[in-house]
């Protein structure tokens, strides 16, 4: 059951996210979803709060949020932490060069 809930969470997030400076099949995006899929529910809620200032997802998922989520490619160094603009549901995501660096940076904020 846990794996299917994680799958639904990640797939629902993909469906309700726009990408700016990235394509949905870029390694930074697919890697991010892989990492998010392996997070605990608590970590995913912390990431959601970091991104949107919403403490928990509506019962019917991301589609019930006020607007779509947005992931923006930043010009920051590849080892910087992500940042966000919570009012607009914008996640500013550096172009990480490796999954390890990405994982470490996401772990710091979650």
UniProtKB/TrEMBL annotation:
The active site is at 87 (glycyl thioester intermediate). PROSITE patterns: HECT. It holds the Pfam family HECT. The keyword Transferase applies. GO terms for cellular component: cytoplasm. One of its GO terms (biological process) is protein polyubiquitination. Pathway: Protein modification; protein ubiquitination. Its EC number is 2.3.2.26. InterPro entries: E3_ubiq-protein_ligase, HECT_dom, Hect_E3_ubiquitin_ligase. It catalyses: S-ubiquitinyl-[E2 ubiquitin-conjugating enzyme]-L-cysteine + [acceptor protein]-L-lysine = [E2 ubiquitin-conjugating enzyme]-L-cysteine + N(6)-ubiquitinyl-[acceptor protein]-L-lysine. GO terms for molecular function: ubiquitin protein ligase activity. Keywords: Transferase, Ubl conjugation pathway. Residues 10-110 form the HECT domain. This is HECT-type E3 ubiquitin transferase. It comes from Solanum verrucosum.
């Amino acid at each position: 059951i846990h794996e299917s809930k994680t799958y639904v969470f990640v797939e629902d997030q993909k469906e309700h996210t726009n990408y700016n400076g990235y394509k949905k099949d870029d390694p930074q995006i697919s890697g991010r979803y892989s990492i998010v899929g392996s997070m605990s529910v608590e970590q995913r809620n912390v990431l959601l709060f970091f991104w949107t200032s919403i403490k928990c997802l509506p019962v019917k998922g991301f589609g019930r949020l006020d607007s779509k989520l947005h992931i923006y490619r930043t010009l920051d160094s590849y080892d910087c932490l992500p940042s966000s603009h919570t009012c607009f549901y914008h996640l500013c995501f550096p172009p990480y060069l490796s999954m390890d660096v990405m994982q470490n940076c996401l772990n710091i904020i979650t």
